[in-house]
Amino acid sequence: MATNSLFRPLQGPSSTPARSVKIEFDGRALQVQEGVSVAAALLSAGVSRFRTSVVSETPRAPYCMMGVCFECLVEIDGQASRQSCLVQVRDGMKIQTQRGPRALTDGTEAGNE
């Protein structure tokens, strides 16, 4: 069942329009507000599926928006399992839906050696 997003950015008292940045989500170019979290930016752009669950692969989306629920995990610039509600959006980010579990490694990723 398709539903409309209940997420709407608040309009501030300032008459100055918010600056925007360009990002890419699953290969789709998006223009989003600068200075907000990746989760807020994606929700305001109409994105409703951020990841799939590990067991049943059902679509998931942010719930708490404060880093507790881990429902907002996405891949940002090639790094999986990023909590999009805790990462500030910046120009040029490449974000992808996280499907299933993060790939396991043997601990020898770049920077861990």
TrEMBL record:
Cross-referenced PROSITE patterns: 2FE2S_FER_2
Keywords of this entry: Oxidoreductase
Any GO molecular function: iron-sulfur cluster binding
Annotated 2Fe-2S ferredoxin-type domain residues: 19-101
UniProt-listed CDD domains: fer2 (cd00207)
Record carries keyword Oxidoreductase: yes
UniProt protein name: (2Fe-2S)-binding protein
Source species: Pigmentiphaga aceris
